Amino acid sequence: RRALPTVNGNVGEPRGWPDVAHLCGGLPDTALRRARLTTAASIAFALGVLPPGTVGCGAGRGEGGRLLLWIVGAREAMEGELARRGLLAEPLAALWPPAARHGVELILCGPEMREWGPADQRPPPRPLVRAVSGTLHSRLQDAPALTTEPDAMLLLNSGVGTLLLPLVAPWLPTLAAVL
């Protein structure tokens, strides 16, 4: 791997799609490959620009010291399918250096998700991915998979940026539970 620039002095960041393609196995940089890696690249970028010391500096709270990330608002047909095809956790580990060092455990949570657990139980840095069905605020009350506080949480498809109450209203209980 070639050296990449850093953000906040400690986290490597791909400069663009050629870097993403290089870090994810060197396959050709095509429109289909970009579409398949967009979610992982977006998550890696978001985690990479967090202030130093907030996440990824040491072992995580997940199984075996993996970094535990909750992906809230996940959808079975999108994030669930990407995860099962190896296009979410594995590219994230290639693009975000702390995940490569410590491993990553992803919990996909959303009302459109089906419940499923990790198929691969190999030790870190091998990623673990599991899914829980329901809204986060309802699952925090009764889901054993969500009893450990995450190292980071990402809210997808929340509509918060639109400032439109009909889109945001279903998220208000979840936002209240995590803030």
What does this structure look like?
By secondary structure, the chain is α/β, with parallel strands linked by helices. The chain has helices at 17-23, 31-48, 76-84, 89-95, 97-102, 136-142, 165-168, 172-178; strands at 6-7, 11-12, 67-72, 104-110, 128-133, 152-155. The strands form two sheets. A four-stranded parallel beta sheet has the order 5-4-3-6. A two-stranded antiparallel sheet has the order 1-2. Strand 1 and strand 2 (11-12) form a beta hairpin. The chain starts with 5 loop residues before the first strand and ends with a helix. The model is unreliable at 1-11 (pLDDT under 50).
List the helices and strands and how they pair.
Layout: E1 6-7, E2 11-12, H1 17-23, H2 31-48, E3 67-72, H3 76-84, H4 89-95, H5 97-102, E4 104-110, E5 128-133, H6 136-142, E6 152-155, H7 165-168, H8 172-178
Parallel strand pairs: 3-4, 3-6, 4-5
Antiparallel strand pairs: 1-2
**Series of H and E elements:** EEHHEHHHEEHEHH
Shape: globular
Helix count, DSSP H or I runs of 4 or more residues: 8
Q: Give the spatial strand order of the biggest sheet.
A: 5-4-3-6
Strand coverage percent: 15-25%
| Alpha-carbon Rg, integer | 16 Å
Structural class by sheet pairing and helices: alpha/beta
Largest sheet: 4 strands, parallel
Total number of β-strand segments?
6
Distance between the termini: 38 Å
Taking all residues together, what is the mean pLDDT? Answer: 82
The helix fraction, in percent, is 25-40%
Uncertain segments of ≥5 residues (pLDDT<50)?
1-11
